[in-house]
């Protein structure tokens, strides 16, 4: 090989280094201008769906509903059929008085677990507060309470409020009486629950009833 033929081989490394320098120049200038190296952004989420749920519960207990909602939504992105995250998300929307959004989450929860007492109960309260869909909510509550294992004072209380809002006074009284009897029976219930049932039954001072808080984590 002659000297002339060998010359292009000697030039190639210099061309490659020049191209690499020009390619990296904007990055180097940006780093120099900021006084630090470019930030590295990590796009992965290291938490599990259950961990996001627990974090959401912690935020909700502190009254930080927006942060709780964010964590429940992250849990659902990890696991779209995560029943408890769906119910908790509905509860957070209910607390923010976003009744339509709460109802949507409870319905999605019921798609995962049809006839679930907790989701059905909370759907009933979304209907009570919004004033919409109470006929359907009452029917769902009646279906849930038709199963002996679901006969709980809080569920009968919710049914009583629904029936009362629908103008079914006698049927509402039956539901409240059953709720109170369960509280006073062998199984019993907390004093606060019994007081709520009696308040809902009488609607003392015309106040709007409040739902018994469902468990945040099962």
What characteristics describe this protein?
single chain, 218 residues, mainly alpha, Serine Threonine Protein Phosphatase 5, Tetratricopeptide repeat, disordered N terminus, disordered C terminus
Compose a concise summary of this entry.
With 218 residues, the protein is mainly α.
Please tell me about this protein's structure:
- The protein is mainly alpha-helical and 218 residues long.
- Among the domains are: 46-133, Serine Threonine Protein Phosphatase 5, Tetratricopeptide repeat, CATH 1.25.40.10; 151-207, no CATH class.
- Helix content is 70%, strand content 0%.
- Helix 8 (153-165) runs parallel beside helix 10.
Contiguous low-pLDDT stretches (5 residues minimum) are 1-23, 25-29, 211-218
> What is the CATH level 1 assignment of the domain at 46-133?
Mainly Alpha
Order of helices and strands: HHHHHHHHHH
Biggest sheet details: none
Mean pLDDT: 82
What's the CATH architecture of the domain at 46-133? Alpha Horseshoe
CATH topology of the domain at 46-133: Serine Threonine Protein Phosphatase 5, Tetratricopeptide repeat
Strand coverage percent: under 5%
CATH homologous superfamily descriptor of the domain at 46-133: Tetratricopeptide repeat domain
Q: Report the helical percentage.
A: over 70%
N/C terminus separation: 80 Å
Based on CA atoms alone, the radius of gyration comes out at: 30 Å
Task: Give the strand tally.
Answer: 0
Count the DSSP helices. Answer: 10
């Amino acid at each position: 090989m002659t000297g002339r033929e060998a010359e292009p081989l000697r030039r190639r490394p210099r061309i490659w280094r020049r191209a690499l320098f020009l390619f990296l120049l904007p990055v180097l200038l940006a780093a120099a201008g900021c006084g630090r190296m470019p930030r590295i952004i990590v796009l992965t989420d290291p938490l599990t769906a259950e961990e996001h749920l627990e974090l959401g519960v912690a935020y909700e207990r502190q009254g930080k509903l927006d942060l709780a909602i964010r964590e429940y939504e992250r849990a659902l992105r990890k696991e779209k059929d995560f029943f408890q995250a769906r119910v908790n998300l509905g509860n957070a929307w209910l607390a923010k008085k976003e009744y339509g959004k709460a109802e949507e989450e409870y319905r999605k929860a019921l798609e995962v677990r049809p006839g679930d007492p907790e989701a059905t109960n909370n759907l009933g309260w979304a209907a009570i507060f919004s004033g919409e869909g109470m006929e359907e909510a009452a029917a769902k509550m009646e279906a849930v309470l038709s199963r002996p294992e679901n006969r709980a004072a809080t569920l009968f209380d919710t049914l009583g409020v629904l029936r009362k809002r629908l103008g079914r006074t006698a049927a509402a009284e039956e539901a409240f009486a059953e709720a109170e009897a369960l509280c006073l029976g062998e199984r019993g219930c907390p004093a606060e629950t019994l007081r709520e049932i009696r308040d809902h039954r009488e609607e003392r001072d015309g106040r709007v009833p409040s739902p018994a808080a469902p468990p945040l984590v099962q």
